[in-house]
Write a structure and sequence with these properties.
The protein is an alpha/beta fold and 328 residues long. It contains 12 helices and 12 strands.
């Protein structure tokens, strides 16, 4: 692991076998964590990780994120337990409310008070996974459960069952970061420029942590990255692969908070791309990655851009990320 920085990558594919192959490749490259997104009809990340656990040696697994509204937290606990039992200590369980259009449009669930819902969700997950039992009756959620096996099981544990699963949550704006600082084991940003994380996310995380009387939890930063000195090709890839985000209200608001008023009408400008994407030669990319901890970032969640006409750029990027992840 690079000093003070864990390096993971976003593994992207439609079918489960391709996702598993991508995780295995990331493990062999030396990356610290493989991250999967979730939602809609995409492959269930915990099921994929359960299989990948048997085909990998050391890589950690992260969900970014499992949407909270469609699943009760105890249903998520079931899947997390399988991964934890097959790969102890390797799971970072990232959850989050997602976005109103997706939750209401796809599932028909009412998307109201998402941070209150997230607070209760995190409380249930952490109590169950890290303390072994939960008795919670909130405004939105209810949970009564323990990790003890059923009475008819052939063996019974002598000590309460707990896990090493880290419970994290998505965050874009100050209130979400404060909540993560107070309750979660980490905050996961997405398409957020580094200066926004340094000026907004880190102080809000620290504020929440002070309120709870604990240390600031980890900040996981999603960072689009590619080893390429072809600035025009990178800009084209950035537009194609990231340009839709400002059309979503939460992302638009975050970008406006970060000093890009053009995001108000859904624009993804070149200035926004330049503030977000790490690009350049191997040396230039490595130097910027090594500087992430000075801004308060604890883990880089790399989103490797695919350049049209230069498929080797992604391979060079993964190779560099793996080498950096193994630096002491």
């Amino acid at each position: 692991m690079l000093k003070d920085l864990t390096i993971g990558s976003h593994v992207l594919a439609f079918d489960a076998r391709s996702l598993i192959d991508g995780i295995v490749a990331a493990d062999r490259a030396g990356l610290n964590t493989a991250w999967l997104v979730s939602g809609g009809t995409s492959a269930d990340p915990l099921a994929v990780f359960a299989v990948a656990a048997g085909e990998t040696e050391q890589i950690g697994f992260g969900t970014s994120i499992i949407p909270t509204f469609p699943r009760h937290p105890l249903a998520v606990v079931q899947g997390a337990l399988v991964v934890e039992q097959l790969a102890p200590g390797r799971l970072k369980l990232g959850v989050g409310p997602s976005h109103k259009p997706g939750i209401e449009g796809m599932y028909g669930f009412e998307f109201t008070r998402p941070l209150q819902h997230l607070r209760e969700y995190l409380t249930i997950l952490k109590a169950t996974l890290q303390e072994g039992s939960v008795s919670f009756h909130g405004e939105r959620l209810h949970a009564e459960a323990s990790l003890q096996p059923p009475p008819m099981a052939p063996t019974q544990p002598q000590q309460p069952v707990t896990t090493q699963v880290k419970v994290m949550a998505s965050a874009l704006r100050p209130n979400a970061y404060r909540l993560c600082g107070e309750v979660a084991d980490g905050a996961i940003s997405w398409v957020s420029p580094l200066h926004h994380l340094e000026r907004v996310a880190v102080p809000a995380l620290e504020e929440g942590a002070r309120k709870a009387g604990r240390e600031r939890p980890a900040l996981v930063s999603h960072v689009p990255v590619v080893v390429s000195e072809d600035a025009e090709a990178v800009w084209a890839a950035s537009q194609a692969q990231l340009g839709f985000y400002p059309n979503a209200p939460y992302y638009s608001a975050m970008w406006q908070d970060a000093g890009f008023p053009e995001a108000a009408d859904g624009t993804f400008s070149r200035a926004m791309s330049d503030a977000l994407v790490i690009q350049g030669s191997e040396q230039e990319v490595a130097e910027r990655i090594r500087g992430l901890p000075s801004a308060g970032v604890n883990e880089m969640l790399a989103g490797v851009l695919n350049l049209e006409g230069d498929p080797s750029a992604a391979d060079r990027t993964i190779e560099l990320l793996g080498a950096l992840a193994q630096e002491q």
